[in-house]
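Request: Not sure, any thoughts?
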Amino acid sequence: ITKPAASVTPNPASKTYGAADPPLTGTLAGFLVADGVSATYTRTAGGTVAGSPYTISATLAPAGVLGNYTITYNTANFAILKAGQTITFAGPGNQTLGVPPNNQITLSATSTSALPVTFSAAPPAICTVSGATLTMVAAGSCTITASQAGDANFNAAANVPVTITISSADVA
């Protein structure tokens, strides 16, 4: 008696970094309904984009009937995709030269990824940034931009520009 051919094939799946795994599914072929064969699908451990793709495989049950078949166990890929992120940056508001001391203020912004936010400013004749310190150079309009470039697991965030007006201290 020749054993009938049967197979189990997981469906490819994916998720965004940091999200819960979706239910894993697949297809059984060649098994007799009366044998009640079912599959449990699992993937290799790991949760980073760099480790992706991971392998989805299947375990079949009940064990007692599996010997009646020549089974092909297929696998599928499980991809982890980079997550998006956003920046929260309200900006320091309009400023006056000489206030606070040394024409400097500390900027603050956060990203939903918890990765550090960087700052830039233009034009340099009006204001400059070093790290998170904004230096007011002259009166005028200055645009401060908060950025987060992303990493192996997160896409770059959209830049958040904030324009402020710097007034001269002698303006009443």
Q: What stands out?
A: The chain has a mean pLDDT of 95. Helices lie at 63-66.
